[in-house]
Amino acid sequence: MTFADTEIAPPEPPRYVMFWRRYKRNRAALLGLVLFVLVVLMALTAGLIDPGDPLRRAGEPLTPPFMNWDTPLGTDQLGRDVLSGVFYGARISLLIGVVATLVAIVIGVVIGALAGYFGGWVDDVLMRITEAFQTIPNFVLLLTLVAIMGSKIEWITLAIGIVSWTAPARMVRAEFMSLRHREFVDAARNLGVSNTSIIFREILPNALPPIVVYASVIMALSILMESALAFLSLGDPNYASWGNMIGQGRAVLRSAPYCAVIPGIAIILTVLSFSLLGEGLNDALNPRQKK
Amino acid sequence: MTLHMPPILTYALRRLIQAIPVVILIMIGTFLLLKLAPGDTVDALVGDMGGADAAFIARLRAEYGLDQPIWVQLWRYMVKLASFDFGWSFVYEQPVATVLMDRLGTTLMLMAASLSIAFTAGIVLGAIAARRAYSATDNLISILGLVFYATPSFFLSLMLMLVFSVKLGWLPVGGIKTIAAFYTGWDHVWDVVRHLIMPTTALSLIYLAFYLRLMRASVMEVADLDYVRTARAKGAREGRLMTHHIMRNALLPVVTLLGLQFSTVLGGSIVVETIFTLPGLGQLAYQSVVQRDMNTLMGIIFLCAIIVVVVNFLTDLLYARLDSRIELA
Prior knowledge:
The structure holds two protein chains of two kinds.
Chain A: H1 15-24, H2 27-45, H3 82-118, H4 120-135, H5 138-149, H6 153-162, H7 166-179, H8 183-190, H9 195-231, H10 242-249, H11 258-285
Helix pairs in contact in A: 1-11, 2-3, 2-11, 3-4, 3-6, 3-7, 3-9, 3-11, 5-6, 7-9, 8-9, 9-10, 9-11, 10-11
Chain B: H1 7-36, H2 41-49, H3 54-63, H4 70-82, E1 88-89, E2 94-95, H5 96-131, H6 136-150, H7 153-167, H8 185-223, H9 226-233, H10 238-275, H11 281-290, H12 294-322
Antiparallel strand pairs in B: 1-2
C-alpha cells in the first residue's frame, strides 16, 4: 500500500446501523415503531398486570372508565373488564396478523416465483388462478371459507391467509421476471445449479425487500379482516377480540359508548402503526425509490 | 372481419376473451366449495321435510344427479351457472337468481355512490396535497388519509350512528327507506338518499385514503416530467397546467386501482349493509353464511365475479381512452 491513508474510504458501518439511520429519518415511522412496541408489550403482558381472564366477570356491569381501579377502563354489560379485553385482544390480533401474513407470503412467493421464473404455460395457468382469486371479493370468500370450515381460530387464520396472497404473488412474479435473465442467474445456471436453488437462493433474496414492505400492509388488512369477522360474531368465541368487543358494545352504544370506542381506538392505532412501520421500512430498504 | 373493426373494439373483444378462463376457474371453484360444505341439496330438502326413508333419499339423489360421477356433476353445474340458474334457496323458498336480483339494485347504488365519492374526493385532495407537497396542508391531508385507512368500516359506521342518529337524530339508523311512509316522487328519492348517507360515508373513507395516496404520488411524478416543464416554460399558468397537462396522465394508475379494488369494495359492503340493515347483496351474503344457505352464497360469489369482470373491462376501456400510448390492437 503506497497510497496515502486519506484515500481509503472510511469503512461502511454495519448494515443494521445503515438500516436504522435510514429508518429514523422518517419521524412518522418512528411514531409507528413506538405504537407497534406498545401493542407488542400489551400482547406479551396480557394476564400478567391485569385481572386475568377477559371473558370472566370482573365487576359491576357497565362500570364507566376511571371509576374503579380494579377495572380502570370500565366493564361491559356482562361485567367483563374492558382493559383486560384490550390486552388480550392485542395478543389475538397480532397472532392472527402474523400467522395469516406468513401464510399469504408463503403462498404468494411460491406461486409468484414459479410463474415469473418459468414463464410460458406455467405462468398462464398460475396467473389465471391468481386473477380468479382477485375477482372474487376477498371478504365474501373469507365468509364462505369460515362458513365451511367453522369458526376455530386456526381455520380463521388460515382462511385470512388464503384470501390475501394474490398481491404478493404478483409482486414476486414481477421481480422474478425482471431478475431471471440477469447475469448472476445465467452464471448460476451455467454452473449447473438446480432450478430450486436458483429460485430460492439466488433470485428470492433479491426479490424480498418490496415483499417485506408489503407484509406490513397484509398484516394491517389481516387484523382488519379478523376484527370484521369477530364484529359479525363469526370469530372464535373462546378468545377476546377487539372486533367482538365492538360488536357487543353495539348493544349498549346509547348508554355506554366507551364499550365500543375503546377497542375501536385500539384497532385504529394498531393498523396505523403498521402503515407507518411499512413506510419506514420502505425508506430503509428501498432508499433509491422516489416517493 | 377484424380489419373493419375499430381498434378499440378489437381490444375490447380480446380483453373479454381473456376473462373467459378466469370465469371458468371461478365456476370450478364455487363447485368445489359447494362439495366441501357439509350437506348437499338433498340433505337440505330432507331436513325441510323433517326426515325421510333411505329409498326416497336415494331416489331424490338420482333425480338431482347427485349419484353421477363428479365430472358429470361439474359439467351440469357449469351449464346451469352459464344460464344464470343458481339453484333453489331453501331459506327464501325462491330461485336464488330471483333473490339475487331483488338485492342487486341496493348494492349497486351503494357502491356507485361510495366509489364516486371516494374517487372524486381522493383525486382532488391528492392533487392538492401534491401541489403543496411538504406544507402544512399536505401534512394534514396525509394524516387524514392514514387515519381513514386505519379505521375499520364497522367501527366508523357505529360512530356515525352514535353521532348522527343517536345524539343528533338527523339521520335514520338503518334500512333503505322509511317503512310505511309511502313517499312518492322526489320525497322518495330524498328519503333513500338520507338512508344512504351514513353507509356511503362508512364504505368510502378507506378507499378515499387509497386514491388520495396514489394520486399524490402520481401527480408528483408526472409534474416532474419534461413535457410539464416545457408547458410551464411556455407560460402556462399553474391552474391550467394541472387541468390540461398533469391530470390526465396522473389519473392512469388511480383508474387501474379503481378497477382492481372493485371486488374489495363489494366485500366491504357486507359489513356496512349488515350494520345499516340495507337489503343488498352484502347483507344477503352474511345471512346466507349464518343460515348455511350455500346455494345463495355461491350465487353471490358468481354474480360478484361477473360484476367485477364487467367493471374491469370498463376500466380497461377507460384506461385505453385516457392513455393514447396504449397499443390497442
